[in-house]
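Quick one:
INPUT:
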């Protein structure tokens, strides 16, 4: 089966620096096939005979934590799960260049509805939040970025339960699944 691992908190702000080559090697050492990384922010596509995304996530987190000495967090999605998540985006999500569009992929067993209760209220006219399938879509006005609730996200507890990708990365990863 085809899978995507989205790693949280690597190569951001000088913390948990792991090269694409090191990630590739770890995933091949775990026995995964057709391993492919995309940009240096923890996006790894691969094939595995195992079918449980949760089991794969636990194995990957353990291996990363052991090899690179940090507390790793990851979400693993099958092709079907990822495609369904992307397709649950609001219509035209990512198409308005006046907005910054991010997808918050959920780690662990938290649901979009439960996680959304810990998010600040959206500010009408400058940001929108939409709940998808195991993902939250957040679009914020670039012009009013400093006024948005989104700017407070990193200070909130719920931030520890997500890994964020921009719309360009989200769509590129869906495209790359065909090459795995």
């Amino acid at each position: 089966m085809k899978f995507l691992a989205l790693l949280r908190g690597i190569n951001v702000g000088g913390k948990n620096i792991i090269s694409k080559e090191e990630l590739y090697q770890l995933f091949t050492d775990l026995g995964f096939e057709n391993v492919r990384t995309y940009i240096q922010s923890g996006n790894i596509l691969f094939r595995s005979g195992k079918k449980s995304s949760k089991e794969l996530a636990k194995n990957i987190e353990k291996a990363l934590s052991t090899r690179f000495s940090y507390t790793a967090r990851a979400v693993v999605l099958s092709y079907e799960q990822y495609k369904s998540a992307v397709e649950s985006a609001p219509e035209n999500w990512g198409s308005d260049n006046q907005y910054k569009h991010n997808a918050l992929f959920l780690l662990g067993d938290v649901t979009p509805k439960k996680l959304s209760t810990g998010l600040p209220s959206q500010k009408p006219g400058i940001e929108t939040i939409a709940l998808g399938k195991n993902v939250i879509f957040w679009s914020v006005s670039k012009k009013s970025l400093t006024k948005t609730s989104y700017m407070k996200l990193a200070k909130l507890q719920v931030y520890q339960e997500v890994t964020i990708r921009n719309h360009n990365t989200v769509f590129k990863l869906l495209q790359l699944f065909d090459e795995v």
